[in-house]
């Protein structure tokens, strides 16, 4: 229990340091990186999701900051935890960001988990893109 508490304290400290970065673009990148590290190294997906969701879009410098951070987290997590990554990707609010994330995730899984890749492609909102990707997946070219 103490190990978990220590890990959480270290994560909070790293998060405070990342939030202290004055440049909003660098701050968003640092928080995104921290979220990925917490998910992959610390194996604490809920905490990583909390960090990614906390990134705000400030002015016009970090466009769709939260959606981008969640997309990065989902894309990095898909090879290790595909179901969790799918659930996280579906929380992306912007359609374009969500479609990009789902497409990239499907490409990552195309050779190893075709069924999961197909399910990810089915979530894409653009019909033409979805159909093209399904054809490529069926032909083994995705």
Short note summarizing the structure:
The protein has 8 helices and no strands.
* Radius of gyration based on Cα positions: 16 Å
Structural class: mainly alpha
Helix percent band:
over 70%
Q: Major β-sheet, in short? A: none
β-strand amount: under 5%
Number of strands: 0
Name the poorly predicted regions: none
- What is the CA–CA distance across the termini? 44 Å
What does the average pLDDT come to?
89
Shape: elongated
Count of helix runs: 8
SSE order:
HHHHHHHH
Task: Write a structural description.
Helix content is 71%, strand content 0%. The protein is built from 8 helices and no strands. The chain is elongated, with a radius of gyration of 16 Å. The model has no long low-confidence stretch (mean pLDDT 89).
Write the layout of secondary structure elements.
Blueprint: H1 2-19, H2 24-40, H3 45-53, H4 65-77, H5 82-89, H6 95-109, H7 114-122, H8 127-138
Keywords for this entry:
single chain, 142 residues, mainly alpha, 8 helices, 71% helix
